[in-house]
Amino acid sequence: MQQNAQLSRSMDPLQDAEIWKIQADLGGSDRTIVTLDGDLLTVTSLNRTASIVKVSDSSSIQTFTMTNNTNNFTVSGLIGDVIIDVEDIHGTISHRFVEVTIDGIRL
């Protein structure tokens, strides 16, 4: 029992241990690439079918309009998990990017 008590005293929560970024084309013929680096969001639509980019986090939604096949946007104050949806001109989501922060345990 003493070993378990020592182990529990040596464990601490570790905030933001890992950041996972996952993205996928969900349909259509376009190939879309999304990168999020701090406050800089870059969206590339290879076939130029992307029209709207929606960025949502735990407290807000920001919407941007694509004007070229590659666009840079400034996103500010993102809190928590981030979901970026890229829509075509019909409002259909063609690409989704998700950034999730995972906590851990420090031993």
The CATH architecture: Sandwich
CATH fold group: Immunoglobulin-like
Structural class: mainly beta
Count of DSSP H/I helices: 1
How many angstroms does the end-to-end distance come to? 18 Å
What's the alpha carbon Rg, rounded to whole Å?
19 Å
Helix content, binned percent: under 10%
Output mean pLDDT. Answer: 91
Order of helices and strands: HEEEEEEEE
Structural write-up:
With 107 residues, the protein is mainly beta. It has one domain (12-106): Immunoglobulin-like (Sandwich). 7% of the residues lie in helices and 60% in strands. The protein contains one helix and eight strands. Strands 1-8-7-4-5 form a five-stranded antiparallel β-sheet, with no helix packed on it. Strands 2-3-6 form a three-stranded antiparallel β-sheet, with no helix packed on it. Strand 4 (50-56) and strand 5 form a beta hairpin. The longest helix is centred in the first third of the chain and has 8 residues, at 2-9. 16% of the residues are buried.
List the helices and strands and how they pair.
Elements lengths: L1 H8 L2 E14 L6 E6 L2 E6 L4 E7 L4 E5 L4 E5 L7 E7 L4 E14 L1
Antiparallel strand pairs: 1-8, 2-3, 3-6, 4-5, 4-7, 7-8
Can you tag this structure with a few keywords?
107 residues, mainly beta, Immunoglobulin-like, five-stranded antiparallel beta sheet, three-stranded antiparallel beta sheet
Q: What can be said about this structure in brief?
A:
This protein has 107 residues and is mainly β.
